[in-house]
């Protein structure tokens, strides 16, 4: 069984958090890409793929950041919109009109939301 399959099974077998909250995720760079650790999910150095890292690099030049995100707009947040034409069971594509950038989010998204939200609002601090 592949590590990717195991990770996806873990995500799917854990119920998502409520949608009406503001989430935070600590990110750091490793090998030029942002990654995150979630010990409670047995996850270490889960990679934000190049398109997601590139988007975050448009928002910051730091190597360690906190990503704040929600389905609800909040002050100083940036909006990304769900792109149905490119998304599938392996991940969800989001488009930033502000930066004219398409980014892919892996199935870990479903640990936070029961389905791909129409919009995600985020901020990097």
What attributes characterize this protein structure?
125 residues, eight-stranded antiparallel β-sheet, globular
How is this structure best described in words?
It is a single chain. This protein has 125 residues and is of the alpha+beta class. The chain has one domain (3-124). It contains 3 helices and 8 strands, in the order αβββαββββαβ. Strands 3-2-1-4-8-5-6-7 form an 8-stranded antiparallel beta sheet.
Secondary-structure element string: HEEEHEEEEHE
Q: What proportion of the residues is helical, as a percent range?
A: 10-25%
| Separation of the first and last Cα atoms | 37 Å
User: What does the main sheet amount to?
Assistant: 8 strands, antiparallel
What shape does the CA trace take? globular
Secondary-structure blueprint:
Layout lengths: L2 H10 L10 E8 L2 E6 L4 E5 L2 H10 L4 E7 L7 E11 L2 E6 L4 E5 L3 H4 L6 E6 L1
In short:
The protein is of the alpha+beta class. The protein is 19% helix and 43% strand.
